[in-house]
Request: fold
Amino acid sequence: MELITFCTSFLRTNVVAVTPWLAPIVWEGTFNPLVVDSIYKPMHLSIATTVFAVGKYVRFLRDFLETAEKHFMVDFKVRYYIFTDRGGDVPAVVLAPGRKVTIIPVPGSNRWQEISSRRMEMIQTTIENQIGKEADYIFCLDVDTKFHGRWGAETLSRLVAAVHPGYYKQTHEHYPYERRPASRAYIPAGEGDYYYGGATIAGYVGDVHKLAKYCREQLEADAANSIEAAWQEESHLNRYLLYNKPTKILSPEYLWQDFKAKTNEVQIIRFSQVNKNYAEVRPN
Ligand code: UD2
Reply:
């Protein structure tokens, strides 16, 4: 009887929960949090979480950290690596035991595209200098975000990406991939799996290091050729993931947007980007 209850409660019929290469796509109702926790919590994993708060984006840190403490990898050892040019403005947030903040000073910039893109270089070098020795898994998250529901060990895997909330119902012809062959982020028409958001990348530290190094090198090669991909590092990320398939994909429940209500597919909003006035928060 118990077994039947278990099986029927884990049926989702209105979403696809596996990729064509048999990686799970994590939706509410496709996993049992109790079973997941009973596997991962005894492992005492160290989880690195990088977040960039450059210039005025430092204002998003309080909500990010306070909501993460309520919902993100609760009961795990988490170290937040906060990359900022405004260390003095990082809010003091009460953290659960075993969780820490490390501030990494970075330069400011007058171009938001550069701030967004340079994250790859800084993630690469910080993994080499520090995180590689301190963590098992890493999450690289946007700061202009909030957690609203459980984000737990169901998101752990070797290489993890999240479906962009704007494109989860679309097919690859409609994805905003870089379509100019002159860019290293080029994806030819007719190719593509999903469109992944740049706001969430995760996985084993070594695998995320490989991805960050690749994106940094491609961004630099494009810059040397005076070309910038349509969506900067997100475009290079999408190309990397097309040819290096993620081992787990997070549904848009893990990357939603504040102005969007739930849908038939998105039954729970776990993490969302906050509404912001781009003209006011960006440097240009
Ligand atoms: C989209 C992407 C985002 C990224 C960006 C690139 C999704 C759903 N959205 O979001 O991930 O690819 O486009 O343009 O995946 N930042 C600062 N200071 C700044 C500007 C940016 O710290 O002045 C950092 C900060 O961590 C922020 C991130 O860069 O969260 C991306 O910022 P954004 O506002 O350009 O990203 P957004 O929300 O348009």
Remarks:
- The longest strand covers residues 196-204.
- DSSP finds seven helices and eleven strands in the chain.
